[in-house]
Amino acid sequence: MTGQRDRWAELTGGQAGDEYARRFARLAAAGHDVHGEATFCTALLEPGARVLDAGCGTGRIAIRLAELGHHCTGVDVDSSMLAVARRTAPAQDWLLGDLARLDTLGLDTDFDLVLAAGNVIPLLAPGTGAAVVGQLAGALRPGGLLVTGMGLDAAHLPLEEAPVTLAEFGAWCTRAGLSLRQRYATWSGDPYNDGGGYAVSVHTRPAT
């Protein structure tokens, strides 16, 4: 999420880390698959790929991707979320920073995949979406992938209405030099139909 009073901060006050982690621990204990995003991304990657988890939160996905053999860096603006990630996986790279200013964090720009899951895009600060997508695209190597998951209606968001449409998001990606490769309705790969409430999109940066 970004630091310009993003929608996530308005919802949580920046103090949601421990409760967020407990929520997923309860889901895992109840037998739910909490690693769908990591499984989805791994299917797109070669072994030992470099992944940037943008808006990584408590590190749930990045930690799982590291367990699967990938090299993961997590970035988030919420220090309470990062505190959980650092406590859980202290050897991994966790950076506190604004996604609209990734280029100030000293990151490399040759990631094989950049992930923005967990409704990162809809919960950005108003007016920053295009800048954030541009920064995420800039972190990719030629041929790299931007993978996003986002709710498109109130049933799939912690908001009364969706602040971003797929058309708007697509325009930001096009402006950033990305092209749509695949789109699904779930992290399990169910086909997306127009008007669906959730979209998992895979965009690619041109190889040349």
TrEMBL record:
<dbReference type="Pfam" id="PF13649">
    <property type="entry name" value="Methyltransf_25"/>
</dbReference>
<dbReference type="GO" id="GO:0102208">
    <property type="term" value="F:2-polyprenyl-6-hydroxyphenol methylase activity"/>
</dbReference>
<feature type="domain" description="Methyltransferase">
    <location>
        <begin position="51"/>
        <end position="144"/>
    </location>
</feature>
<dbReference type="InterPro" id="IPR041698">
    <property type="entry name" value="Methyltransf_25"/>
</dbReference>
<keyword id="KW-0489">Methyltransferase</keyword>
<dbReference type="GO" id="GO:0061542">
    <property type="term" value="F:3-demethylubiquinol 3-O-methyltransferase activity"/>
</dbReference>
<dbReference type="GO" id="GO:0032259">
    <property type="term" value="P:methylation"/>
</dbReference>
<dbReference type="InterPro" id="IPR029063">
    <property type="entry name" value="SAM-dependent_MTases_sf"/>
</dbReference>
<protein>
    <submittedName>
        <fullName>Class I SAM-dependent methyltransferase</fullName>
        <ecNumber>2.1.1.222</ecNumber>
        <ecNumber>2.1.1.64</ecNumber>
    </submittedName>
</protein>
<keyword id="KW-0808">Transferase</keyword>
